[in-house]
Predict the structure.
Amino acid sequence: MRRRWLGPVAVAAATFATGCGTDDVRPLVIDERRGTVAGVGIGDKAAEIRRVFGERPFANGGGLAPADSNFVEDGGPAVVRTPAPCNGRRSAPPLLRYDEVSFLFCGGRAYAFMVTGERARTTAAAAIGDSLADAAARYGGRLSCRDDAPGGESPFGGQQNYPYCVGRVAASRWLWLGEDELGSIAVASTSLDPHGG
């Protein structure tokens, strides 16, 4: 009997499809230039993402945060611009939300995702749990770092903010690194920069 080699994407798909993903110790690889996590992501239909991460209905609202995430504590992107074909819609974009990862859709295809799982790392080796400065340094000055992402009202009055780094890493690919220690990594086909760009 011939053995067939399963590449990393096929292994990831098998792992997540069987529901064993949370106990897996292998990294959850984010290819920020291609816009994928575990081999799926930007430009893919929901069916392709469900084949890797499992069956899940679309969530109703609640922002981009994964199911097990606190958006502010994990430092989620303050802005995810909606692609032109979906601009002006009154309803929130469809969202597939899993533990550790979530995907936003426009026109039936993913255009952004956010990852918070401790196993997550980018192809440049920025990993959840790294210091924000170390993670950003892996991009050789292509990211702009600030400490003013709006985190809501402080219990003592005034605005709470958190640090982040953001920038374009490829054509139509924006990267967000949020919070220090790094709590979230987001990739989108649209700008993630809260100050324009």
User: Anything to note?
Assistant: Residues 8-79+92-188 form one domain.
